[in-house]
Specification:
The chain is an alpha/beta fold. The chain is built from 18 helices and 13 strands. Helix 1 packs across helix 5 (86-100), helix 4 crosses helix 5 and helix 4 crosses helix 6 (116-127). Bound molecules: S-adenosylmethionine. It comes from Shewanella piezotolerans (strain WP3 / JCM 13877).
Length: 417
């Protein structure tokens, strides 16, 4: 059945019903995430590996799964299904989701039916409850209200929108104009992003990773807000730069391009598999000045004392700024993990800041919008470390920018101690 209904603006369309097997996959992925606490990206790879799905079908599955998770409590309420009942009752929730979005019902072998009158009544009830309507769990709403006050309702609403697709042009290989033109030839439509000169927003429903441009390393998929963090570091060719929580290198590659591939860029992490992934990406991007190093103990950091012109600390965080992209974090043990993360952030900031040389710049960054992980951490650090001076900070707000939510603070070391 062809519906050709644009669900979310012009970049992702659900233009046909899911096939029975795709519907089963959505239910099974939801079950894995909600019952076993599996992170969404790993649940996708577990389900997709070895399946040989068309990229478009895979795209539809992730679109529907992501959309359900962004407002899970709403769809659970509307369908009267509990998150942990997904394997048994998921077909009803999926039918409700389609009816709610005025889409034709998917074909399923065994589907629990929906009473449309009852659904209409429930929709009216839900409209009166903004927290439920925005797909926000109660713990998150309480935290947002307590930490962000009047700014919270707009952020809460912004965080249930689908994430836009952004690219970062790899300026080691081409300009933004050249990339946009090449992508157009490969039927990928993009528009420039105001205020982020390395970013393009993808506005067509196209598979990106099969393009020649991607294979040649002309771009990386990276949120525009994340690109702003790397830009704030202001790394110059020839500098000594440390990206101390580099992960798979999203920001490392951005920094390497800023440095025009010249100088020394040390990417570190506590997970070797992430650094291995980073090395591969760096090769494709021709980011030849990147060196990776595992953080085996505190000695790895001590050896680099007072050595770096720039240090980026993109610390582990709750991810509460990137819920559009990772909506599963709302339904996992995030509130229980938060105090542990806050302690780890404090430790990393205190200990890794030793690597910055006098006159050097430190960027502390998170993909959270909660002040507890952001400005509060920076204020506490500055109170105890008078040899650092505050330069500026920025909250990158999903509500104001349409990007993911990030925070960064820029500090300068003004004395050895
Ligand atoms: C927010 S992610 C980094 C994302 C990455 N910078 C990017 O742009 O793609 C935080 C990273 O910190 C790493 N990490 C966790 N504990 C750490 C520690 N004690 N020291 C350094 N890195 C740590 C995690 O493995 C994770 O890769």
């Amino acid at each position: 059945m062809i519906a050709a209904i644009s669900l979310y603006g012009n970049f992702l369309m659900l233009n046909s019903s899911l096939s029975p097997s795709s519907t089963e996959l959505v239910i099974s992925i939801l079950d894995l995430v909600l019952k076993e606490g599996k992170p969404l990206d790993r649940a996708y790879s577990q389900h997709f590996s070895g399946l040989q799905l068309e990229p478009s079908e895979q795209g539809r599955i992730t679109l529907v799964t992501g959309a359900i998770l962004r407002r899970l409590n709403l769809y659970c309420f509307l369908s009267d299904v509990k998150p942990e009942e997904m394997a048994r009752m998921g077909s009803r929730l999926l039918n409700v989701w389609h009816l709610f979005h005025q889409l034709p019902l998917p074909k399923m072998k065994y589907a629990l039916q929906v009473d449309e009158q009852e659904l209409a009544t429930r929709i009216e009830t839900a409209k009166q409850k903004p927290v439920l309507w925005d797909g926000c769990p109660d713990w998150l709403d309480e935290m947002g209200q307590a930490q962000m006050g009047d700014r919270w309702p707009a952020e809460r609403a912004a965080l249930n929108k689908p994430a836009k697709r952004f690219l970062r042009v790899n300026t080691l290989k081409c300009t933004r104009d050249e990339l946009a033109k090449k992508l157009r030839n490969e039927r990928v439509q993009t528009v420039e992003v105001e205020g982020v000169e390395t970013a393009l927003e993808v506005v067509s429903d196209s598979a990106l990773f099969r393009t020649e441009c991607f294979k040649k390393g002309w771009f990386e998929q990276q949120d525009a807000g994340s690109q702003l963090i790397a830009k704030a570091l202001d790394a110059k060719p020839g500098m000594r730069v440390v990206d101390a929580c580099a992960g798979a290198g999203g920001k490392t590659l951005s920094i390497s391009a800023q440095m025009e591939g010249k100088g020394r860029l040390l990417a570190m992490d506590v997970e070797q598999w992430k650094l291995d992934n980073l090395k591969q990406r760096a090769r494709r991007a021709a980011a030849h000045n990147v060196e990776t190093r595992i953080i085996a103990s505190s000695k790895t950091i001590k050896r680099l004392k007072l050595s770096a012109d720039r240090v980026l600390l993109d610390v582990p965080c709750s991810g509460l700024g990137v819920l559009k992209r990772n909506p599963d974090a709302k339904w996992r043990d995030t509130p229980e993990r938060l105090p542990v993360l806050v302690e780890l952030q404090k430790h990393i900031l205190q200990s890794y800041s030793r690597m910055v040389k006098v006159g050097g710049i430190l960027i502390y960054a998170t993909c959270s919008i909660m002040p507890e992980e952001n400005r509060h951490q920076v204020d506490a650090f500055l109170a105890e470390n008078k040899h650092f001076r505050f330069i500026e900070d920025e909250n990158i707000s999903p509500a104001e920018t349409g990007f993911d939510g990030f925070y960064y603070a820029k500090l300068e070391r003004i004395a050895e101690a």
